Amino acid sequence: MSRSLIRLRATIRDTFRTLEVPISPRFTPAKKYTYRTNVTNAAAGSQTLNSTNPALSFPCLDAREEKTATLRGRSLDTGPEPSYTSGDHLKHHSSEALLLDWGGALAQFDIAYETWGRLNESKSNVILLHTGLSASSHAHSTESNPKPGWWEKFIGPGAPLDTEKYFVICTNVIGGCYGSTGPSSRDPANGEVYATRFPILTIQDMVRAQFRLLDHLKIDKLFASVGASMGGMQSLAAGVLFPERVGRIATISGCARSHPYSIALRHTQRQVLMMDANWNRGFYYNSIPPHTGMKLAREIATVTYRSGPEWEQRFGRRRADPSKPPALCPDFLIETYLDHAGEKFCLEYDANSLLYVSKAMDLFDLGAANQTRTANLRQENESNRSDRQGISCSLTLPDEPYEEQQEVPSLSNPIDIKETSTPQDLVAGLQVLNKHPTLVLGVASDSLFPAWQQREIADVLRAAGNRSVTHVELGEDVSLFGHDTFLLDLEHIGGSLKRFLA
């Protein structure tokens, strides 16, 4: 026996003696601690000694492994990465560089869009419709793409966005993956996919790109800017960035600044996605996409899109098959619903787009201080554009783990969000909208963008001097659909919007 092996055995024995752990000469556990079962599979090992209980089966993991194997075996010509197309759409190419808020730039970019209705001679009937996080420009069916859009019933003759009166434009945001330039697009500088070389975006960057499209279409002023969820953020931002070019503003289930709860939820989604080994720090194109991380991220998101009371009515505590024993894979109906939602989405949307667009939502803040800080940063970056080569994120993790701050609100006297004073920073930031007729619409059952955030918008606008604010809040007696109400409630969401635009 070699000297090194003798020393190693002595070290191990001394360690166990120090810990007062009894060991046998060959480290063989007693019979009562034998865990192998008589089940034959990769996880449980070959058939050995009988166990008290059989090993559980995991069809959900089997399905994931089968999907990975299928993606690995796809044609090298097509690659395993999905194409992320949403059917025929229009596309505007801008060859003028777009300087971004955080110092990055797009030397050129494409923006995908679709239109409905007819533009009048004065071009005064234009409504710009802003999308949520993962939506395409396909809000309504068209002749070239008859597939129903994500707001199909809200657009058309006599609908809330009445195509007999208005010319409706909807774009896919930059950073997205449905035709607009995003991380899955190719960098014109080298022809390679951007991946995580794509620059950090803000909601305002997305809006500036949209107004480049309006410039191309020679549309000077919008009749209205309309959006829900992330689109509600964009709708407000459009008015703040281009107050002279926006007439009315409708913001549905949105906010004027992102708050910690929604930031935390999106952070969690990004983390489970980035921890998928196939994500590969964003360079997964022409390889196996991080479908497992995307599935889990979507399941987390889906939890925030609806409300607990609705799920009580819809699923209750029912199991998918009560005749079978409980399982660790999806078992309750609510679990199978979430599993289906995640599975359906995991290859329909680019993982990097989810990261970038959700981060833009986190950064959203229309307060005066943030606007001033961003304007100064843009000016500094504009004057130093030639020096931007090689600049990268220098963020490092803190040396010490997080510790509770000394000055925190007393848990015995919690802050009542409903009764906090109107934030003056937001009042100053939205002052520019004091003459814009504005519809602010919220839903009491919404947990992702709680109704108090829409009340905050309305209160801030009124404090800024706006006398044309229409605030509508749907109680739980009207809708239990939570955040998704804006997609489903044609009567109350659509009705309020139609009356506001009339």
Q: Which sheet architecture does the biggest sheet show?
A: 8 strands, mixed
- By CATH, the superfamily of the largest domain comes out as Alpha/Beta hydrolase fold, catalytic domain
Strand content: 5-15%
Please tally the β strands and state the result: 12
CATH topology of the largest domain, by name, is: Rossmann fold
Strand order of the largest sheet: 1-4-8-5-9-10-11-12
Order of helices and strands: HHEEEEEEEEHEHEHHHHHHHEHEHH
Mean of the pLDDT scores?
87
CATH architecture of the largest domain: 3-Layer(aba) Sandwich
Number of domains: 2
Q: Please report the first level of CATH classification, the CATH class of the largest domain.
A: Alpha Beta
Walk me through the structure.
It holds the Pfam family Abhydrolase_1. One of its GO terms (cellular component) is mitochondrion. Residues 70-89 are annotated as: Disordered. The chain is α/β, with parallel strands linked by helices. It has 2 domains: 2-73 and 290-346, Orthogonal Bundle (Rna Polymerase Sigma Factor, Chain: A), CATH 1.10.1740; 90-262 and 358-501, Rossmann fold, CATH 3.40.50. 34% of the residues lie in helices and 11% in strands. It is built from 14 helices and 12 strands. It has helices spanning 3-19, 59-72, 203-216, 230-241, 260-274, 291-305, 308-314, 333-345, 351-362, 368-383, 424-429, 451-463, 485-488, 490-501; strands spanning 90-94, 98-99, 105-106, 109-116, 126-130, 155-156, 161-162, 167-171, 222-228, 246-252, 438-443, 469-474. An 8-stranded mixed sheet has the order 1-4-8-5-9-10-11-12, sandwiched between helices. Strands 2-3 form a two-stranded antiparallel sheet. The longest helix is centred in the N-terminal third of the chain and has 17 residues, at 3-19. The radius of gyration is 27 Å and the shape is globular. The N and C termini lie far apart (92 Å). The model is unreliable at 15-42 (pLDDT under 50).
